[in-house]
Amino acid sequence: MGYVAIKGGGRAIEGSHAAAEALRTAEGDAGSPLTLSTIEHQLRLLTSRVVSEGGLYHPRLAALAIKQMQGDTLEAAFALRAYRSTKPRLLEMPVQDTSNMRLIRRISSAFKDIPGGQMLGATYDYALRLMRMDLADESPQAFRDVAKRFRQAQPETDLPDTFPKVLDALRADGLLPPLASRSVEAFDITREPLVFPVPRSAALATMARAETGSLLAIAYSNMRGYGDVHPTIAELRVGYLPVMLPHPVTGELIEAGEVLMTECEVVAMYEGGDNDGPPVFTLGYGACFGHNEVKAIAMAILDRALQKGMRDGPSNPSEDPEFVLLHVDGVDSMGFASHYKMPHYVTFQSDMDRLRTTQSKATPTTNTSLKGIKA
Q1: pLDDT in tens, 46-92
Q2: What is the DSSP letter of 240?
Q3: Buried b vs exposed e over 290-312: b needs ≥16 C-beta within 10 Å?
Q4: Among positive and negative, which fits the CA dihedral 274, 277, 278, 282?
Q5: Is this prediction's pTM over 0.85?
Q6: What SS3 state is found at 78?
Q7: Domain regions of the chain by residue span
């Protein structure tokens, strides 16, 4: 592409930055700055989205990126990912066991009764989408009373530390394929380019930090007819996963902290039989940082679709690894769309020259053949 170097304009660029910063504080003295704690907790789902798409679990920095970029999730994820790239890599985390999650929400649409029971947790799934006008002028005291009333209304119950996986029960009944070996090294998308065909771990890692809307759109195309994955959610989990890291001296795994994440396991149509063994359900898996249920579900659906496409060849866009994996990253997509705002004077001048040359070569009869004909 032909770009040109721009001379001057430094004062204009500085003024543009100043204007953007002024709009962030548009209320002036009448307003007050958003604290990072306010963004992190009161806009927790927005923070979760940026943490996930930025590929760095740091809710406070995600809140800072949201504040800096005035709520633009793509720009915030871009800033968070750029920050991550400046940090040194200290070690490689071993495979984590999500069955040890400290759950705050856990449901299954496959069974009414599941081992350990359903846990609805915090969700808007069962709420009416009606505007709550009382929140427009919510007083500080009313704001504080919400959490106070919730704590007082909770019964004294002892929840278990972990819950059994629904898939374990299905696998015990022979309805699922056996667990795959974990001996294969996971693909590192932060250090290795995607050269197709890629392993499933590369697809999962790419989708884990993909833009939520992009994943949802392509997964929706599959559900709506450009594909045949119509899954049942075996289990959807939201909770805190203990991060187990090797001790620097003994090498023994110790808990270094925990991260909030969402995990979804879907069961799709069965396949197999004859020489392949007994028919079993197929599976799709999705997992990402933060509380991102729609993203995890869309990821699980696309995982199932991509597995089918890798095995049998893609029959629709959602089964094509190149189509899906090269178009779901929000930072990449935003960057390419935004680059059109750069000066394209050279290429456009060339386009105009070609058009004028083509026009000059056009025969006069082209426009005179209709003379005398009335509309």
Answers
A1: 999 999 999 999 999 999 999 999 999 999 999 999 999 999 988 88
A2: E
A3: bbbbebbbbbbbbbbbbbbbbee
A4: negative
A5: yes
A6: helix
A7: 34-88, 98-124+132-334
